[in-house]
Hints:
By secondary structure, this protein is α+β, with helices and mostly antiparallel strands.
Amino acid sequence: MKSLIGFLSSLVLIASAISPASSSSVANKLIECIANNNINPSSFQTIFNPESSLFSLLLQSRVQNLRYINSTTKPLLILTPSDDTQIQSALLCSREQGIEIRARCGGHDYAGISYLSDKPYIVIDLFNLNEVQVDVKEETAWVQSGAQLGELYYAIARQSTHLAFPAGLCPTVGVGGHFGGGGFGTLVRKYGLAADNVIDAYLMDARGQRFAHDVHEDLFVRILLLNVGGGDDKKKKTVQANFQALFLGTKDRVIPLMNKSFPELGLKAENCTIWKMMLEEDVPIVILEPLGGKMNKIPESYTPFPHRKGHLYNIQYLVKWDKNGKEEEERHLEWMKRLYDYMEPHVSKSPRAAYLNYRDLDIGMNSAGGKTSFSEASVWGQRYFRDNFKRLTEVKGMFDPENFFRNEQSIPLLHK
């Protein structure tokens, strides 16, 4: 069975600055180094510099958040590897020359940190590493990190009518980032997160060494295809439905009806004021993803994602706009911040929880110098990972003691 290339897409290197005048020579040195170290060169082009006619297309085609489409930040190179040896070469050469790495699976990171940096960097785009091999008998699959969710689902559907994998709805999301952050989907209450169903992986460290089965238990992940049919009855199929409701009347009428049917919600008139805020925007979206069910049975420490028993919903806040421009962007972001503050009394506290795949750099970032202390990083780390954050810093110290992989919200070393 083919190996899974488990390159961690959310980790980057912070390097010293390089002047624009020398960026071209640095890029050329990187290209030469990667070519010399690559033991399995591709038969087609995999390295693109800014002079390449395909450079801008490759960079922008997978920018999912259009806020960053006109960013002046550009990588020195874009690497589109076709196998893991090319990733190994890029890691070794970038580490040697002090260049940041941004790895991109689907480009859906909300803050764009899979393809943006304010330091000299290269982008490793994994879209060529998108193979999915399904083993129906074992109910497992090896999935390369550059595959998108739609490609995973399609590969499963081609092989089986009774197997599925519990992950997200958006077909263009890359599995590397999605699994790494947890992975919400419509099957979450039945089977948990995508990450809860990952059983094994091949990973790559800062020296380009690939490892798997002898790795520490804290780094094991696994991929499992689950039967969502009728148990032993393979002919029986399960159908899930999502319900959306509309009440044609005023809040004075709907509140008594809601409290009669759903008393556990404790709906009050003041809870309905969010609609006033929603009317201020052209395309506001608030998505409440229900938890509970299987999530209540999985311990908080099972994976880094801790928001299990006692949590009702994972809430996603979105706003969209068509006009490009700084003034327009600031107006919409200001509204989003007011909505976020408005929800403060109604959500988790001490700390207010956050979901890594809905990344929010406003809750805190690592220091630019790379010496972020545990207490400093806990400002954001506790929100994403709660008590798992300390365990993650311990694992970080074991497997990346030089802190080669890092970004604005990567796991820091355990500095005092």
